[in-house]
Design goal:
The protein has 11 helices and 15 strands. By secondary structure, the protein is α/β, with parallel strands linked by helices. A hairpin with a 5-residue loop joins strand 13 (215-219) and strand 14 (225-228).
Amino acid sequence: MQPEIICLGEPMLEFNQQPTGLYLSGHGGDTSNCAIAAARQGASVGYWTRLGADAFGDSFMQLWSDESVDCSRVERDGTAPTGIYFVTHGAEGHRFSYYRAGSAASRMTPAMLPDDYIAGAKILHLSGISQAISDSAAATVVRAIDIACEAGVQVSYDTNLRLSLWPVERARAVTHAAMARCRIALPGLDDALHLTGRDEPDAIVDFYLDLGAEIVALTLGASGTLVATPAERRRIAGRKVVPVDATAAGDTFDGAFLAEIAAGRDPFAAARYANAAAALSTQGFGAVAPMPRRPDVEVFFDEQT
């Protein structure tokens, strides 16, 4: 079956610090998280990447199968590992430590892409992290955008800035070039402050519209989301919760938002739904485990409407 949404990037095994000081293992990686979040909302989703031929890679293959994310085109590499990261928590919030150098995903090249798989989708979702992990991965993302644009596939892009991976000057050049070819721009406020040099949400939204995006959903944390098209913009209020762990809340927003767009919802309705899904995802530890499924989001959405 050809999925409607294809996500591409680097999945990573997660070790998330608990209040006891012990670490809970789980799964992460921004575009993998997005794929799972979208699938939990009922979307038809596929994922493409490269994994190590190791136990961590096996666990991702099982996860995607369990979550109804098509992974039939994922490649395995017997000479490179699956990446891992640790999440610690403190007064300043959650902090990430990555161990991904030389990972199987970082060795992806444009020639490895499943062109037909991408061309058959409705939406291709990518992120800045996927372009930051290596030069060959950056080129692979560019080629994936080429394939999608040539086939009339909508491209979605989350800047997901990680300054530990690349300098801001290069991040600006690469992500702006990608955003200029995307239909759906999904920046976060903190990222956008660094990348655009603008300090007001409306100015940031204008920046990405001027690059060429047709839909911009600028996430503002607890304050909600500023959604804009060339013709209209609205601030969509956030949903009130007491957060436990915000890991992957942005990825959950992306997945829920894209699931709604793929189902034919307008971007403002999609953002209202995605805000609810993202809020619920902060109610537990880890990236994947707390991600809500559609019935839970709908109940929560109705309770706060």
